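Q: Can I see a sequence and its folded structure?
A: Here is a first one.
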Amino acid sequence: MPWAVRPDRSQTMKSRIAFYAGSFDPLTNGHLDVLKGAMVFADEVIVGIGIQASKQPLFTFEERVELIEGWAKQEPGVDAAKLKIVSFRGLLVDAAREHGASMLIRGLRDGTDLDYEMQMAGMNGIMAPELQTVFLPASPSVRTITATLVRQIAAMGGNIRPFVPSNVAEALERKFKA
């Protein structure tokens, strides 16, 4: 093979599509910390909002999409064109395959998360060996934030602004004012 002949990298490089799943009910600064991290190395990040018939969410799917899109449009340095938001039911690996993902993004806050996520990564790896699980550690400033705690604080009239982006804080305030 002559040295001058090189493969066309544009045809050999596969897009790095990441699938980041969660309920995002509500979207928190912790979710955004992980999402921003994924956007650094992925060509496209698909935010998969899990829909479970057994759970009654605070925000509808459409409201959660609007909140994520609203954040992406106002956040400096975020390429909103790299984001796609979808709903899914059933197995995460099936949804990721359906959308052409090559990796699953999982955020880690602490050792408890790591233990659980390692089990999930192992099971997902058996069901879908073509999908790589990528763990992103949460920044220290957002490690304590959970959507459950944010909902509880909002329901009791507390200040949730340190834990969520401004558009989500406004939506929560409207939701609990009603």
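Q: Show me another, different protein.
A: A second, unrelated one:
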Amino acid sequence: DQLFLGDQGKIVKSIFKSEFKIYYGVLNKNIGRKSSRTGSQLWHNDGGPGSCVNMMLYLKDVNEDNGPLQIIDWVTSKKIFWYERFNLNKLRRSIDKDQFRKLRSNHIDNIILSENHKNSINTMLGEKGTVIFFSNNTYHRGGYPIDGKDRMVMIFHLYPSIKPLSEIIKNHKSIDKTDGYPNYTDFNENFL
């Protein structure tokens, strides 16, 4: 609560132009291995409601070797979204989830290379304490350190709310991840 009741909270309020709710927060540590990218290390968007803002806090310095977060700009993310919708959705039902994630990430790499969108990728390097805000629906990937290096971050999913955060904190003891995004009941009980 110290993080969000201070300067970071002011930034989040200015983004939403309202109060906000921390839907969940997770500690993420990625350790470099020689294996290929998996899970959130692959290009993806979170696919939650468009009102969600992700916040990442670097708990250690992050350089190219530590697996920095990479974000594709919004204009290119929208193009990729429509490409995926029209060209990959049929495959989503015919192969398992992990195969589909790898296939989609490879397609995104090919789009970026073939259409010369390399400049649309923002690589988020920073010192311990760096805070990064981004829309959950932009395509992004991260946490792929080189062998022998690691990256440790906190990731928060934030939503607008009409209740002040200080009031929400009094009533909720945890920000554990229970689902990918809020359902209708969550909104009624916890956001309004």
